[in-house]
Known about the structure:
Shape: globular
Oligomer: single chain
Number of helices: 3
Strand content: 25-35%
Order of helices and strands: HEEHEEEEEHEEEEE
Largest sheet: 6 strands, mixed
Number of strands: 12
Strand order of the largest sheet: 3-5-7-8-9-10
Amino acid sequence: MAAVDERGMTKFFEGFEPPEGIKVELLRGEIVMTAAPDLVHNRIVTDVQDQIPRKRWERLQTTDLDIIDEASEPIPDLVVSERGVAPSSGNLVPSQWVTLVVEVVSKTSVDRDYGIKRSIYAAGEIPAYLIIDPIMAHFVLLSDPVGEGDQADYRGQWITKFGDPVLLELLGVELDTSEFGTLTGVRRHRLP
């Protein structure tokens, strides 16, 4: 990891083995553990992955990202990069090789997906970040990252509702979202 972490959190995180079924991420020095995702979540990730052409794009689920100058190793739900640019082995993919990250919102990840991860991915200069929100039944596509550290953000933002196509221009793909499921029994939220 390229970031300097004076409290030693990154060293601890490197050797940490989470219990089975638990996803563990390092987000700006904080270790965040979440339970295995809902079936709605998994089906959406698979559906998006299946619509991105495999011959040109590498589509990796739950892969750790290495963000330069960040005490962070986020694990997006889907990482998309041009085929052949990512390392052939290892558990970290450098953010500069990533074209798109995808996060599917859950009832416990709303603030992280819309907030800290938005800033982390922008700081990592990832060209596009797609937030898929089955609580609100919409997508937020972010592009054009600017800034550094906590001040990093995306200049472009497009919101599209489930059922409408989502144009991922960088990939040359238009996502069909007509079969995306929603989470029921979860309180709706506002966009941060």
